[in-house]
Amino acid sequence: MNAGPIRVVTVDDEPLARLGLRRAVERDADFTLVAECAHGLEAVDTVRSLRPDLLVLDLQLPGLDGFGVVEAVARDHMPALIFATAFDEHALRAFDAHALDYVLKPFDTDRLQRALDRAKALVRLRQLDRLGESLRAALATARRPGGIERIVVKSGGRISFSSVDEIAWIEAADNYVQLHVGRETHLVHGTLAKLEASLDPEKFLRVHRSAIVNLAHVRTLEPMFHGEYRIALDNGDEVTSGRTYRDRLERLVTNAF
């Protein structure tokens, strides 16, 4: 994969600290520094507008502290996150806020580099995941423009066929998938990813790493926390979407006219 540079925003109210972060980022050709911020409100606006891959964030900031910045941008775009702090008692809280790592000030060059290396690995993995998802979607559209119409179900020595239109939702179960048809369930050998590539994307939507819903059977969507939704289906089941699938669901609930 010919990935582009990892776009970094640093946030610190101390000029010397910003200089140290700038030098560390610029030493690695895989990173590019797209912005430097000196206070929390500026950081929120910058992250929302530039959508960086990595945010290196001071905890003690004027106006809005680092945790406040995370809370403000988490619903829009939460990049990989490294906290910078002079107080290590914040470390546990930093990881509660889903920080990938934290570094203490004054910065130790080797420790900061290790944190940046961890962030690089995470961002590259995310890029590969997005590429794989795009390729799967493209292949599904190119090879199966209408999607499959039925799924073979083997149970109790019998072979039956389940129409995909009757399936309310599909759930991953290790090396199997579970089809929820009305109040019945059927276990079929295979992976959710392979089945997703065979289904019509106009009818079925992946809403969680372990769940696909049939849009024709969706009755209501209830917003929850951090971009998640509670999805009520016409068979009485409820499915909670994953936060990384928020954009798909938001497109679903927007009228085209």
Largest sheet: 5 strands, parallel
In the CATH hierarchy, the architecture of the largest domain is: 3-Layer(aba) Sandwich
User: What quaternary form is this?
Assistant: single chain
Separate helix tally: 7
CATH class category label of the largest domain: Alpha Beta
- Count every beta strand, where a strand is a DSSP E run of 2 or more residues: 15
Determine the strand fraction and express it as a percent band.
25-35%
- Per the principal axes of the C-alpha atoms, what is the gross shape? elongated
Specify the helix fraction band. 25-40%
- Counting structural domains, the number is 2
pLDDT averaged residue by residue: 83
Keywords:
single chain; 257 residues; alpha/beta; Rossmann fold; OB fold (Dihydrolipoamide Acetyltransferase, E2P); 2 domains; five-stranded parallel sheet; five-stranded antiparallel sheet; 15 strands; 33% helix; 32% strand
Q: What this model shows, in words?
A:
This protein has helices at 15-26, 40-50, 66-73, 91-96, 109-143, 192-198, 246-252; strands spanning 6-11, 31-37, 54-58, 80-85, 101-104, 150-155, 158-163, 167-173, 176-181, 184-189, 204-208, 211-214, 218-223, 229-233, 238-240. The chain is α/β, with parallel strands linked by helices and 257 residues long. Helix 2 (40-50) runs parallel beside helix 3 and helix 5 (109-143) crosses helix 6 (192-198). The longest helix is centred in the middle third of the chain and has 35 residues, at 109-143.
List the helices and strands and how they pair.
Blueprint: E1 6-11, H1 15-26, E2 31-37, H2 40-50, E3 54-58, H3 66-73, E4 80-85, H4 91-96, E5 101-104, H5 109-143, E6 150-155, E7 158-163, E8 167-173, E9 176-181, E10 184-189, H6 192-198, E11 204-208, E12 211-214, E13 218-223, E14 229-233, E15 238-240, H7 246-252
Parallel strand pairs: 1-2, 1-3, 3-4, 4-5
Antiparallel strand pairs: 6-7, 8-9, 8-12, 9-10, 11-12, 13-14, 14-15
Helix pairs in contact: 2-3, 5-6
